[in-house]
Every structure is written in structure tokens, then in C-alpha cells.
Amino acid sequence: MRASTNHLGAAMDLRQLRYFIAIASAESLSRASVSVGVTQSALTRQLQLLEEELGLPLLRRTGHGVTLTEAGDRFLVSATDVVDRADAAVRDMQALRKTTTGSVVLGIPPMLAETLLVPLVTRFRQDFPDVSLRVRDAISGYVLEWLITGQVDVAVVYNAPKRAKLALETLISDELMLVGAAGQGAVQSDAPIDLAEALKLPLVLPSPQHGLRDVIDTAAASISVQPNIALEVEGIHSLIRFAEEGYAYTFLPFGSVSYHVAQGLLGARPIINPSVPSVLSVAMSTLRPATKAMKQLFRYIREDVARLLETEVWQHRKPPSEPPATDPR
């Protein structure tokens, strides 16, 4: 675990800080080595590395042991603060693991499986092994309906309407992309493409009952262009598969295909004149009390999406600038 404050460099770790605190407390390298359970030579080496990084001596050797220099005295305050806060954070998580039980059902679109779902579930299960976690995946319209009817506890959805009975937080204000097989004609370039031009390409789209289709149809109607639909499919995986095979193009949010783009299976172009918004949100129902496990999962989704936005394939996608409308904490 790395220590990082305004006072401490990123390279020094908690072990070095603990060793320094032990030496300062014992006023002796030999006594400190016994208290921390390492050899005196190893302790001395770590102290030297710490002093080299700081560029100042922290201890003054005397005939009876060691004393703090002026720099060491000041550094001890910062080091103790960092170690105390780190220990408090660990105790807090340990207490949470001991007390958090129950079950949580997560609803999520299958298109987010590669980028969000697997690391999210892995993290949650590691931190809360006593919580039963169940995942249900479907298109956003179904997931939202499950949330409203109590079949899922936490939902990740695209383009959810604002409703009084939902605690809804925007994760990404994204835009739909024109997606096709990597190297295929219209996606050989990654330059923006006009919506009217994109709609005239052979398209594979979900059925009109799908929320994504509703967004596309609304955008097409706004510029009075009829989509050139070659095939309708219900499942997102089938949609992506047909696009990968070069059968037709489709429209999807970048987050749902970033893995495929990174693997060289798909190409994607931004859409302009106009752009087509696609908003990813996390939601819980306000009609049922939120358990501690539900709140933690809600928070983890927010944090994991924020981390995804910093990755190589998502880095050009920005989180919403406005503050969240609701927070389950």
C-alpha cells in the first residue's frame, strides 16, 4: 500500500513509515528491530532509502541510540498521521466485512459484461464474502422494469427516464457511435460522420421495443431521415456479432464496444449533426429501504466506472459535470 499525502512522496510505502515511527519511538535501532520483527541491517537499509528520497537526515546517531533531527521531528507528525489513517481505513473495512450480510440482486445490460461486470463482481465478492450477490442481465428497458417491480435491487441502465420513485445517478453522459467490422468501409476512418449519412448505411438494430432503438428513431425523426434497417435483432450480443461479421453497421455507446474495438474486432466513429446522446446511470428504488450491501454495490459501480473512464480505451469519454442528483449514502 502506498502512502500519498501532500507531505509524503508516492514512492515511499507504509512499511518504511512504520519502521521510522518504531525507531523514533524506541530511540534505538536495535530495540526497534525487535519490535517490528526485522533485522537491524534491513531496518537501517529502509531508513537510508527513506532519507535518500526525502533528501534530509531524519535521525542523529548518539552513543546511546538515536534522536530525531529537526526534519525527523516534523516528518514524524506526517508519517504518524498517514499510518493512523491507513490503519483506521483497514479497521473500517474489516468491521464492514464482519457486519455486512444479506443478499443483493444486480441488473445490468449484457453489453457491459467485459468492461464493468467482471471486475465489479470480483471486487464486491472479495470485500463482502458474506453477501449473496446475484446478477441478472438484459436490455436496459427490462432491467429498469425489474428495478421498479422489486426483482433487482441495484440497476445499471442506459437512457433511463427520470422518475420520482428512483434514486438515479448519471455515470456517463456518452454518445452513440457508428459501429462496424474493423476495417469495413464506413469505419475505416475514425473521423465523425453525419447522422444522415450513417442512417443510410445498412443497419442492424434492436426492435422498436428496445430503449436503444427508441433513441435512434427519435434522432432519425429529428432530421427526417428513415433508417436503412437490414435486420432487427433483440439481443445486444447478436447485434455486436452481426456488426463484427460485417453484415451491417449499428449504433452503440462506446463503453459497450470498447473491449471489441481494443481487440481489433470493431471500428467506431463518432456521430455528429446531430450527435445522439446515450446516458449510463446507476439506480435504486426509493420504495424499498436500501441495505448496507446495496449501498456499497451502488458506490462500487460509481467508483469502477470512474476508473474505467481513466483507462486507455475509455479515456476520451468524460463523466457528467453536474453533481449527482441522488446518493444512497
UniProtKB/TrEMBL annotation:
Q: Which UniProt keywords apply?
A: Activator, DNA-binding, Transcription, Transcription regulation
- Keyword check for Acetylation: no
InterPro entries found in the cross-reference section: LysR_HTH_N, LysR_subst-bd, WH-like_DNA-bd_sf, WH_DNA-bd_sf
Span of domain HTH lysR-type: 12-69
Can you tell me which family this protein belongs to? Belongs to the LysR transcriptional regulatory family.
- The name of this protein is LysR substrate-binding domain-containing protein
Q: What is the lineage of its organism?
A: Bacteria, Pseudomonadati, Pseudomonadota, Betaproteobacteria, Burkholderiales
